Amino acid sequence: MILETKKRAVLMKKLYKRDLLRPHQVFRLIRSSIEKKKAISVIRLGDVMAKLLSQRDLASLREASPFLGIPYPPTLRLLHELDWSVRQADVVGVTYFPKRAMQLQDYMKIRGWTPRLITDSFINDLMYDHGYIHRLIRSHRVVLVGRSASAAAQQLRKRNLPVAGAVDLPDYYHLTQTFNQLKNAKDRWDLALVGASVPGRILCVALTKQLNKTTFEIGHMMDALADPKEWKKHHDRKRFKLRWMRKLATR
Fold it and tell me: Torsion angle of alpha carbons 229, 234, 236, 237, nearest 10°?
């Protein structure tokens, strides 16, 4: 069960002993980074990421690995890239689930790393529900990345919201191809909204570090952009996950 926002904030402050950025603060940081041309990356570390970074409970990822876009078992190269990328991120959404929060904290301690800024790992949902994602799309040249990117772009254009482009990232093995597509079109976009599960975290940091482009890893909110009626009616990210797992199982 997901706690409501205020209760999550109280619990996470207690768990991490730090203040968390609120949605309006993350929104302002993203806008400022684009305007000042000082790119930042915003990524989230939830349940799956805690398992991968701590390298615990990995067997639980076997069934979902096609959906997560990663091989099972995770390769050492993937785990290394993920570890490096996470530690380079500028804003990190952290989980409030106690077991996963403990795994994240153990990982941070082992790596001697503390995120510069932290926020709620549900920051993607909050930014969508507060209208901030749509405001970013209206105000900046945005490219969408992920399996649902094309469908999301189509929906947004129907509402006269401009989208600079849409690029797929089906899995970890397509990272280089997707990065190069975005690099070749870098003069046409300023902000990448990435909904591409685990590989999306690696991509976000690579785009920020190598191309000086601001990135926001929005997870299932790419599906919400692609199917806003579904999100408004059910407000349940698991429905998107199950839909994709069924679709991928038939391929």
Answer: -20
Report the C-alpha gap between 16 and 117 in whole angstroms: 12
CB atoms within 10 A of CB 12: 23
Sign of CA dihedral 79, 84, 89, 94: positive
User: From the CB of residue 152, how many other CB atoms can be counted at a distance below 10 Å?
Assistant: 27
Task: List, as one string, the DSSP characters of 39-52.
Answer: --EEEEE-HHHHHH
Q: Residue written as tokens 């409501």?
A: 4
DSSP code, position 172: G
Structure tokens at 149: 């990117």
With beta carbons less than 8 A apart as the criterion, state whether 206 and 85 touch.
Answer: yes
| pLDDT tier at 214, thresholds 50, 70, 90 | very high
Amino acid of residue 51: K
Give CA separation, 149 vs 31, 56, 82, 89, 144, in Å: 21, 31, 22, 22, 5
Any idea what DSSP says for residue 145?
E
Cβ 202 vs Cβ 195: under 8 Å? no
Distance CA 192, CA 4 (A): 28
pTM over 0.90: yes
